[in-house]
Amino acid sequence: MHGPDPDDPHPVNGHPRVGFLRPLVDHPQIEIGAYTYYDDPAGPEHFVERCVSHLYPFLGDRLVIGRFCAIAAGVSFVMNGANHAMTGISTYPFNIFGHGWEEGFDFATVLAGMKGDTIVGNDVWIGEGATVMPGVTIGDGAIVAARSVVAGNVPAYGIIGGNPARLIRSRFPDPTIARLLRIAWWDWPIDKISRNLAAIRGADIDTLEKAQ
């Protein structure tokens, strides 16, 4: 038992709406780990066009998504290019329209509003229609409820929901979360993961700590 090919863009026979993203996404500012999938009735091939907005090369920010994540249809990753400078009287982006309006524009005002890369950890489930705002970090094992607007960092194994999204509860007690982060099963070789699926599915942490 070795599991599906992580480079198969359509790993579920008869369900073309489900696709592993790593072989489907080729973008210099997007990094996606193995086995992370996107589920969209229109097909997963257009993940970048449908789900990632305002990602511009001149800003250089990145979207980094870990391994074994589940991303539902309609999820939106809003990147730093969506932000407007807020240090002046107006937030209107005069400079982008040219015709003289770009003169005297200080690009540093845009950079000052940068919130950094957007990072999604491993084994994260993002529900349908959720929006992830620029510069957010979502910890390993977290769950983002459908339609949530994630504007702040999410702790590992946290369940969040709402607009703005807030922590509903943790999936496990803090000592258990610490053990899970040390185990980091998603980094194991795939044959080791396959041998220990029962413990992963069943939250058998003792077995995972002794896994071979």
Automatic annotation (TrEMBL):
It comes from the Bacteria. The keyword RNA-binding does not apply. GO terms for biological process: response to antibiotic. GO terms for molecular function: acyltransferase activity. Signal peptide: none annotated. The keyword Transferase applies. Keywords: Acyltransferase, Antibiotic resistance, Repeat, Transferase. Belongs to the transferase hexapeptide repeat family. This is CatB-related O-acetyltransferase.
